[in-house]
Amino acid sequence: MPKLTSRADLNVYRDDLVSKRKPGATVVTLCAGTGCATCGAGDVVEAFRKKIKTNGNIQILTTGCHGFCERGPLVVIRPRNIFYQMVKPKDVDEIIEKTIGKGEIIERLLYVSPTTGKAVVKEEEVPFYLKQQRIVFGLNGYLDPFRIDDYIANGGYQALAKALFEMTPDQVLQEVLDAKLRGRGGGGFEAGWKWKSCKEAHPELPHHIICNADEGDPGAFMDRSILEGNPHSVLEGMIIGAYAIGGTDGFIYVRNEYPLAVRTFKNALVQAREYGILGENILGSGLSFDVKISRGGGAFVCGESSALFRSLEGKVGEPRAKYIHSTERGYHDEPTNLNNVETWANVPHIINKGAKWYRTLGTDGSPGTKVFSLVGNVNNTGLIEVPMGMSLREIIYGIGGGIQKGKAFKAVQTGGPSGGCLPDSALDLPVDFDKLTEAGAMMGSGGMIVMDENTCVVDVARYFIDFLIEESCGKCLPCREGLRQMSSILHYICEGKGQPQDIATLEELGSTVADCSLCALGGSAPNPVLSTIKYFREEYEAHILRKKCPGGVCTSLIEYEIISSLCNGCGTCESVCASGAISPAEGEKREKGELHVIDKVKCVKCGACIEVCPTDAVIRR
Amino acid sequence: MDPVLETMEAARPRTEMECEVEHILEPYEKTPEDTIMVLQDIQGKYNWLPREALEYASARLSVPLAQIYHIGTFYKAFSLKPRGKHILQLCTGTACHVRGSRLILDSLVRDHGLKSGETTADRLLTLECVNCLGACALAPILVIDGKYIGHCTQVRAGNTVKRLRKEAAVDKKENANA
Question: Which residues in chain B are contacts of A578 at CB distance < 8 A?
Fold first, then answer.
């Protein structure tokens, strides 16, 4: 591959790629993202590859995540966009013979909408996708992340060419400022302002461009799916950023727990260099910029900018006080511009279509779309991209398909360990940076964990505080010691040893930790506790005053029971009970044996019986 | 280092482990900035961070051994103790937590003698709780030697542990017979 040395080269190359494609050719799109891969997509891909050889008329395309992980492995047959879900290797022959060969639909593999009971044929008609607006994720189902050609053929690197050859660095910067692109990593700070202050800082020093892919929030995997599905879009954003800011070198800091993302991005760098899109004299424009990969060590605090820089320098990731912003003194104390993966991936779209177009998406204060990982007790788990301002209700019920097993909704947790829990009264809240913060939660990087009536919010608060104790770097006292005290109070409450004054103590401790901590980790750490006290005070009171756990989670406060009328006497529960607490009650006949009862003295409340009971006769209360 | 000592050090024959670490260091520029990634690769090779490997890496990267240990204890990904033959990673991320991963952990600890973050005395099993594997649709998740068990239950987790122990016992017997 000869290097592309001008904009004309790029366009000729793209036209050439497009002309080689046969219009109307069948493309079998196989999702090989982590969600589908864990469901066995690897075997499905293998089966397809064995059976069909890619030729002009049929192509096999293994792509990154399509988002609908709950139903993986996913297969989409284009151009008709026939959507098959939960495909097994044994289905492959039938798909090849019937759908690819004769154009017939296989009913069994279609998605059936739980609300209407009807089977859906086309991908875009699946309710999960119907209400989404996919910009950043737009190309995820259409390209092989390991092939730069796919990206270029789909209009990739056009924004870079436009920036380099039609715009000055200041114009690019102005466009991002006008678009009011806000950082998608959590804080929501305006990217344009960050770029500007970095650009203007210390012109004599090198300027670093860094992509933060240390997605540490448990329950969030948006950034990974972007890197795994469309790495070039992030890289293109970074190069455009380097042009606007005057960046001299770049880094991407990826979690080592994301091996596939490391591989796709590494490959993207190699290909982009080979094509002359990265490195010296990019596309003959005179701009030189390169990016290195740095793998993180698995520490949540390293998502914080100053800790991330220390980690990049090969040190322990401890944050520093930020009297001076990292845009002035960041990596190696030199001006550094750090943005998150999703923020960078938005940049090419803004340059391509303009700030004006971008402002038509989303809300006034938070333009654009946002990718969320919708997980927890919701029917359609997966990654979604929606315009800012959509209500939580629309997201959870419209896209997410409501709560699993028809249970009642209790809370939705946004923003990971730094965010908060919102109750059903907040469901009509439009989701954007400011509205969520006002409500006591936060946008965070986009994790959205839905919880049903069988969740205990005190337990969830304790879970997050314990997580943060583990992840606190220990440098400043309020975070290190304050969280410990909060955790021990929460543990007491969950064990039924809570005191009436505990809630007030938690609130006082929480506000001290939030006000006095050194970095954002400690500053937002009490949010899960404070927001649950705000919205679910009665649950705390139930634990403390009545010694009851309304969600049926806190082991010390609940009992297991078998409902006599539901038990069919099968005895499965007895066989799994490790503590020998379940036995048949003599004389009580049921269809499959005798009624079983739980000896509450022997019961260790492990819950194994609930897992196996075929008639849901075992309950916790 | 003192130049005389350095020459002597360079002339000393390398141990097997030192050669292996040298091989790991090859693609790097050997600056202190590479420390974390080098440690990751060492851990990738041995499954933990042996002291001998760290001492050698310390000299080659010009990073004091104490600082290497500082990094080794700070980041969660590193283990300073040998790990077991089989590694069980239980996801305790938020989505797995609300779908009941805690009950699985409790049962592995109570009924199967495992402890979070520790290796069994026979070095067969290591249990680790990890924060999010990003496959929340399949929550709760248990990963055994890289293989995912989605929608895991304590019964399935327990059966897997029993199976691994049984296989190890069979292997031991066969080895003894051979």
Answer: 107, 110-111
Write out the two tokens for B149.
């068990």
State the Cα–Cα distance between residues B101 and B95, nearest whole angstrom: 9
How much is the CA Rg of chain A, to the nearest whole Å? 27
Decide if A207 contacts A199 (C-beta within 8 A). Answer: yes
Q: Comparing C-alpha atoms, which of A378, A405, A138, A146 is closest to residue A269?
A: A146
Summarised one tens digit per residue, pLDDT across range A461-484 is 999 999 999 888 888 999 999 999
Residues contacting B70, CB < 8 A, separation 6+: A316
| Chain B interface mutation, best of A311, A315, A457, highest count of B Cβ atoms under 10 Å | A315
Per the structure block, which two tokens stand in for A459? 């337990």
Across the interface, do B137 and A72 touch by the CB < 8 Å criterion? Answer: yes
Residue B88 has phi, psi (to 5 degrees) of: -105, 120
CB pairs under 8 A between A and B: 152
Best A31, A34, A36, A38 member to test B by mutation, with max B CBs in 10 Å, is: A38
Q: Which residues contact A429 (CB under 8 A, 6 or more apart)?
A: A391, A392, A422, A435, A436, A439
Comparing CB atoms, the residue among A70, A377, A382 nearest residue B98 is A377
What's the mean pLDDT in B43-58?
93
DSSP assignment letter at A250: E
Q: Which residue has the higher pLDDT, A250 or A187?
A: A250
Question: E strands along A138-189, which residues?
Answer: none
Round the average pLDDT of chain B to a whole number and report it. 89
Overall size of chain B counted in residues: 178
Contacts of A311 in chain B (CB under 8 A): 36
Of chain B, the end-to-end C-alpha distance in Å amounts to: 51
In 3D, which of A611, A606, A614, A607 has the Cα closest to residue A590?
Answer: A614
Q: How far apart are the first and last CA of chain A?
A: 67
Q: Over the stretch A555-608, which tens digit does the pLDDT of each residue have?
A: 999 999 999 899 998 989 999 888 889 999 887 888 888 899 999 999 988 888
Q: Which residue, among A221, A223, A72, has the nearest Cα to A136 in the 3D structure?
A: A223
CB A291, CB A278: distance < 8 Å: yes
Unique residue bearing structure tokens 């046969």: A22
Q: Looking at the complex, report in whole angstroms how far the Cα of residue B102 sits from the nearest Cα belonging to chain A.
A: 10
Burial class (CB in 10 A: 0-12, 13-18, 19+), A585: middle
Name the burial class of residue A160, with classes exposed (0-12), middle (13-18) and buried (19+) by CB atoms within 10 angstroms of its CB.
buried
Torsion angle defined by CA atoms of residues B45, B48, B52 and B53, in that order, rounded to the nearest 10 degrees: 40
CA dist B59 and B38 (Å) reads 13
User: Which residues is A336 bridged to in the sheet?
Assistant: A208
**Surface-to-core class of residue A325, CB atoms within 10 Å of its CB (0-12 exposed, 13-18 middle, 19+ buried):** middle
Please give the Cα distance from A329 to A192 (Å, whole number).
18
Crossing angle for the helix pair A341-359 and A158-166, to the nearest 10 degrees = 70
Opening angle at CA A308, ends A305 and A314, nearest 5: 150
| CA atoms A46, A47, A51, A57: torsion sign | negative
**What is the C-alpha to C-alpha distance for residues A122 and A113, in angstroms, rounded to an integer?**
12
Alpha-carbon torsion, ordered A57, A140, A193, A212, to 10 deg: -120
